[in-house]
Amino acid sequence: MSEKREPPIEPVGEQKMIRQAILETGSGIMQDFTPMKQFDIYVCGFHPARDDPSMQMEAHHYCKQVNRDFLQCVLFDGNSVDANLIGIEYIISEPLFAELPEPERRYWHPHNFEILSGTLVAPGLPAVAEKAMLKLLMNSYGKTWHTWHTGRHDQPNSGHALPLGEPMLMWSFNREGEMDEVMKRHTATALSIDFDEKRAQRQDLVQHAHPQCGVDLLKGVFPNAAPAPPPGVRESGECAYVAEAHAGSRSV
User: Fold this and answer.
1) CB 41 within 8 A of CB 64
2) pLDDT tens across 29-63, in order?
3) Confidence at residue 211, expressed as pLDDT on a 0 to 100 scale
4) Is residue 126 part of a domain?
5) Would residue 23 count as lying in a domain?
6) Using the 8-state DSSP alphabet, how is residue 227 labeled?
7) Is the pLDDT of residue 188 over 80?
C-alpha cells in the first residue's frame, strides 16, 4: 500500500456537493462511470514548466493505456480523496513520436531521465513490477499541460486556491541537479521512496535507451545542473526546436 499524499492547497468555495444534492433527492447514483474505471495505472513524477522552469511540481498520474503506443493520463497534486485535478498528460511511444511533424514535436518531452534517475515511480507496486512497467515506457514522450498551479507540498500556500491563468506546458528534468532538491526530499519522505536505490536498480535499462528529442531543451537553465546528462539520456539532435531554444536561453 502506498503512502497517502494530501494536496498542498484546499480550494475555495462552499462545501455543498452535487453528489450530496443527488442523494438528498432520494436517488441512488446510477450513472455509468466506465471511462474513469479504465484509468488504472498510477505513477508519480515531477514536472518543470517549459517556459518557467522555476515552477516545479509533484504530479500524480492516473493513466489509461489506449493501446501499446498511447496512454492518456489525468494529473492530481496528491493521491488522497481530496487531491486536486491539475492537468493532463498524453504519452506516446518512440515510433509515434517519429511520425509527428516538426512543429508538433516541441510540445513533447522525453522520459528516459525520469525513468533511469529513479524519480518516476509507481507507488504501491513491488520493485520488480514497477521496473517491468517502466521498461515499456523507455524512449516514450509526454505532452503535459498543467491547468492549475496548486503549489508545492514543501512550500505551503505557494499555489492558487482556484485554477487561474493559462494552461502551462510542462517539461521533464534531464540532468542531475535540475530538480529542486528540497522538493525531491520532501516527496521521498512523504511517500517513503528511496530515489537513489531505484536509480541503482534501473541501470540495466540504460541498454534499451535511445537518444531523444528535448533532452537539451533546458540545458544551461538550471545553475546547479550537472554539465552532461547521465548514461542513457542523450539529445538526438533531430529536433530543430532544441537549437532554437538555446538561442533564447535563460536561467532560473
Assistant:
1) yes
2) 677 888 989 999 999 999 999 999 999 999 999 99
3) 97
4) yes
5) no
6) S
7) yes
CA distances from 164 to 74, 144, 147, 149, 154 (A): 18, 17, 8, 8, 21
3 state SS for 63-99: EEEEECCEEEEEEECCCCCCCCEEEEEEEECHHHHHC
Question: Does residue 213 contact residue 235 with C-beta atoms inside 8 Å?
Answer: yes
Q: pLDDT category, 238, cuts 50, 70, 90? A: confident
C-alpha cell at 8: 498542498
Give the cell for residue 132.
Answer: 517491468
The residues, ordered by sequence, that sit 6+ positions from 47 with a Cβ below 8 Å of its Cβ are: 56, 57, 59, 144, 146, 170, 171, 172
Could you tell me the three cell numbers for 207?
A: 541498454
Specify whether the CB–CB gap between 187 and 114 falls below 8 A: no
Burial state string for 202-233 with b = 16 or more CB within 10 A and e = fewer than 16: beebeeebeebbbbbbbbebbeebeeebbebb
Total number of domains in the chain:
1
The residues facing 170 across adjacent strands are 49
Give SS3 for 232. coil
27 in any annotated domain: no
Between the alpha carbon of residue 108 and those of residues 40, 92, 101, 151, the distances in Å are: 23, 9, 12, 23
Residues with Cβ within 8 Å of residue 51, at least 6 apart in sequence: 168, 169
Residue 66's domain comprises 38-247
Closest Cα to residue 142, out of 175, 167, 113, 179?
113
CB 161 within 8 A of CB 9: yes
What is the rounded distance in angstroms from the CA atom of residue 79 to the CA atom of residue 111? Answer: 22
One-letter amino acid at 131 equals K
110 membership: H or E segment, kind and range: strand 109-110
